[in-house]
């Protein structure tokens, strides 16, 4: 049932997914996974509400109610399983959408201080925190620091691509706003990291070729 629900959600059939998940939750009400998945369905509905081309304008009260549904589900998932890193990230993002900025900042700070985080999770935290700082707190310099931290991690992922994309956008924005020197520094950083990544990949490939001949 869990995988059926995830399939419906990826197909944008959130109502069908919610129906499956809520039935499953009746059987296992203390499942962090199920509460998290229900929260992701609400998150997808919220994203659709926030889309500029979503048709008729959605009242702010409905958006807030949907954000609060997300918060309730993600908070429950985290309460049942504090090690559910993705639920903690989603909870912080939901707080951000609901303008509960201090709560969001607290979660991101706690996650960055968590030394048990695996590198892919840490990379996601840096990217998500950067987006929060950029869009919700309008703190561009702090956002740049988080995006750089995510991009330095040589894990080729959606989060790294997002961080790189945002850095390029900020560099272009700063170039137009008389921060050309800082914009150039960002672009130089990206070039240097890309060069290091390419050299690392070349060394790995050479090592693998050498192993084949042993």
TrEMBL record:
The Gene Ontology biological process terms listed for this entry are: defense response to virus
Which residue windows are transmembrane per the record? Answer: none
Q: Cellular component GO terms, alphabetically?
A: cytosol
Q: Does the keyword Thylakoid apply?
A: no
Looking at the keywords, is rRNA-binding present?
A: no
**Key words, A-Z:** Repeat, TPR repeat
Q: InterPro entries attached here?
A: TPR-like_helical_dom_sf
Q: Report the sequence similarity comment from the record.
A: Belongs to the IFIT family.
Provide the protein name. Answer: Interferon-induced protein with tetratricopeptide repeats 5
Species whose genome carries this gene: Anguilla anguilla (European freshwater eel)
């Amino acid at each position: 049932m869990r995988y059926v629900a995830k399939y419906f959600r990826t197909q944008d059939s959130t109502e069908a997914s919610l129906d499956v998940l809520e039935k499953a939750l009746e059987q296992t009400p203390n499942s962090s996974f199920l509460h998290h998945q229900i929260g992701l369905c609400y998150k997808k509905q919220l994203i659709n509400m926030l889309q500029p081309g979503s048709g008729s304008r959605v009242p702010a009260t409905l958006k807030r109610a949907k954000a609060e549904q997300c918060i309730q589900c993600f908070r429950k998932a985290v309460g049942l399983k504090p090690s559910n890193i993705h639920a903690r990230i989603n909870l912080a993002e939901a707080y951000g959408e609901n303008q509960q900025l201090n709560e969001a900042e607290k979660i991101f700070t706690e996650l960055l201080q968590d030394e048990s985080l695996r590198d892919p999770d840490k990379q996601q935290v840096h990217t998500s925190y950067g987006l929060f700082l950029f869009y919700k707190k309008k703190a561009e310099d702090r956002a740049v620091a988080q995006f750089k931290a995510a991009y330095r991690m040589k894990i080729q992922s959606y989060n790294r691509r997002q961080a790189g994309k945002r850095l390029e956008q900020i560099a272009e924005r700063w170039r137009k706003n008389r921060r050309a020197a800082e914009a150039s520094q960002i672009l130089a950083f990206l070039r240097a990291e890309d060069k290091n990544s390419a050299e690392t990949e070349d060394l790995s490939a050479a090592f693998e070729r050498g192993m084949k001949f042993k």
